[in-house]
Amino acid sequence: MHDEPGVDTSELALRLAAGQTDALAEIYRLWSSLVHTIALRSLGDPSDAEDVTQQVFVSAWNGRHTFRPEQGSIQAWLVGITKHRIADLRTQRYRNRRNLQAVALESAATTSVTDDTDWADRLLVVHELERMGDPRAAVIRMAFLDDRSHDDIAATLDLPLGTVKSHIRRGLLQLRQRLQEVERVAP
After folding, report:
1. Considering the domain 110-185, what is its CATH architecture?
2. How many angstroms separate the CA atoms of 18 and 140, rounded?
3. What interhelical angle do 9-17 and 21-43 show, nearest 10?
4. For residues 86 and 146, what is the distance between their CA atoms, to the nearest angstrom?
């Protein structure tokens, strides 16, 4: 990886380390498209790529004291941060899927082979979603029953993407906890 031609990256690094916001703005101007492209190719979702790009530059600002020009270029440093943010998002996606599967498995584990028990479990989940209330219940229904993307849900419900993701995470945890409570009480 090479630095931008005509840009004194060592001076830029010193200004960033000194907390000069115009240095961050310059770094963003020079390398935000690279960061966004890496995120988009890795994640395949434009909204997630935008989130990662923002997170990378916030992380760069917050961690500006960790940049060591003698160990590599600003560009390489940003690519490293990008890879970490992508990994964080993939981990979050995995946890969301795992939580949903855990809820489904816990529900299935308590059922017998009768259709009545299966219906009871389904009704319990429906009841808990109703009890949860909107917008959280609507977000969970759209994400898991309608198989819609986080970005699509945010646009449909006119909610910030981070709020949608928080509703999904907290809603799944709430469902899981409630199903565990029912299992403890059930004969």
Report:
1. Orthogonal Bundle (1.10)
2. 44
3. 100
4. 25
Give the pLDDT of residue 177.
79
145, burial (CB in 10 Å: exposed 0-12, middle 13-18, buried 19+): exposed
pLDDT band at 8 (very low <50, low <70, confident <90, very high): confident
Q: In the chain, where does the domain assigned CATH 1.10.10.10 lie?
A: 110-185
What is each CA distance from 105 to 32, 108, 110, 121, 148, in whole angstroms?
42, 5, 9, 11, 22
Tell me which H or E stretch contains 174: helix 161-185
Tokens of 167: 């509703």
**56-109 pLDDT per residue, tens:** 999 999 999 888 888 888 999 999 999 999 988 888 877 777 766 666 665 555
Q: Tell me the Ramachandran region of residue 7: left when phi exceeds 0, alpha when psi lies from -120 to 50, beta otherwise.
A: beta
- The residue type found at 111 is T
Tell me the one-letter amino acid at 13.
Answer: A
Q: Tell me the CATH class for 9-90.
A: mainly alpha
Distance CA 40, CA 131 (A): 37
CB within 8 A of 116, min separation 6: which ones? none
Peptide bond into 135 cis (omega under 30): yes
d(CA 150, CA 168): 9
